[in-house]
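User: My collaborator and I are trying to settle a disagreement about how two of our proteins should look. Neither of us wants to argue from intuition anymore, so we agreed to look at predicted structures for both before our next call. Could you fold the first one, then the second, and keep them clearly separated?

Assistant: That sounds like a sensible way to settle it. I'll keep them separate. The first protein:
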Amino acid sequence: MTDQSNHHLHGAATSAAARTQFVESNGRRLAYRVVGTGKPLVLCNRFRGVLDLWDPAFIDALASQGLQVITFDYSGLGQSTGEATYNPLSLAKDGLDLITALGIKAPAIGGWSIGGIAAQILLAMTGDIASHVVLLGTTPPGTLAKSGEQLFYDTAAAPGISLDQFTTVFFEPADAASREASRRSFERITARTEDRSPDVPAEWAIAQIGQEPRNPLFPSEEILQLLKSTNVPILHVGGDHDIVMPVENWYALNGHLPTLQLTTYPRAGHGPHHQHPEMAAVQIAAFIRNTRRS
């Protein structure tokens, strides 16, 4: 599955060994990392996410499945320069500029949370470039059947990053196995001590998205129509109790999105791929390997 044109992207064998690299594009410097070799998968990050807040177990499991995983810091956040914003159009533009600057051919594109919104916009921007779309704990465009919970906005506004906050936002605190998975994921994420991207300030971040749930979160009729007509395969991996972007909103579109596949983990939250990193990676890789444009 290796595309010859992507060979100059040197992927580290593991997340721990991956060094931050930089590329100049449109007047700013984008920080990125590459893990693995093979079919490129470009991942857009979550709200308050930077390079180091992907679970290394998930990234490494994707790489072990023959994917070359490219992660990056959005403009003005982490180690990237430029103007910081959570406008999804700008986040998608970061992804497009990275793909263009690195000369990545026929990538799969993906995104988690607000990065999943960016990935949907990126699909519109890239047209025929993207081979697949992988969405993680995100929302579809348009009016929602179920809004998010106030608990997310109250928890996400707290400064710093604690295990309790991490568990509440990304896992299912009511379930002992989910709490334990959260602890393990948190330990993996915080294990790296060198070459870390600085955290996104909570106060700035929450001011960008507001302090209470909105409906719709992503008011784009244009993107909704694209999802209804695209022939690009789309996979959404979700948890059955996502307090930010409820998975029920994807099921509400049953019969309308011709290429959408849904995988939903029980007793899981907004970070299903951190609760089940190996299983999520295997399913994502199988989806990319075995589905083609219709």
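The second protein, kept apart from the first:
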Amino acid sequence: MKTALVTGATAGIGAAAVRTLVAAGWRCIATGRRAERLEALVAELGSDKVHPAVFDVRDTAAMEAAIARLPEDFSGIDLLVNNAGLAQGLGPAQEASLDAWRTMIDTNVTAMVTITRTLLPTLVARKGAIIAIGSVAGSYVYPGANVYAGTKAFANHFTLALRADLHGTGVRVTSIEPGMVETEFTLVRTGSQDASDALYSGFQPMTAEDIAETIRWIAELPPHLNVNRIELMPVDQDFAGFRISRTS
């Protein structure tokens, strides 16, 4: 039985990924800050299938301690799913909060590279896989995305750079770059359930389960196949968005 470590597993894509991988026969280490949500996953799926690792991904010492304490059955990690991330704010850069920018960088960039570097020796030894949840925002910017878009561009390209560096090791590396997925993402970004409901109303966005199934499919491909990057959008969303500011 293979083992996956999924960051940001308390909700959305991360929680769905744990459920989907366990249903496919994997063990999962589910990480996140909200202990009660991780314990609910354990109660739902079984302590032999899910190990909760409670820590903030920005806390390197806590992350390293949680990995050092993994039970023997969960210590051989075959798949890292770099899912934890967030967006804060929708205003233009000149009005944005510097603290919000730093939070996004610390979570989406620094924490991701830290846990990746920590687990690379194990993943190389086991010829494992790394799947990162990037975003179409890393390729197609939009007003108010500023630092969020920058962090997702980093996530997309850091993952591809890993692919280059891990050449010859047998480790597979994939960047999954979704468009609009209805999760808690917008609620966290805006602090408003009404804003979240309004954003996703009137069309059919992707679901966390859609992305989780993509993760499972990639993870279970034959070991000689690598999906470098995959971009997903709802049919009702596209990438067109050029604008003109007219003076008259």
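Some points you might bring to the call about the second protein. The chain has a mean pLDDT of 94. Residues 3-232 form a domain with the Rossmann fold fold (CATH 3.40.50.720).
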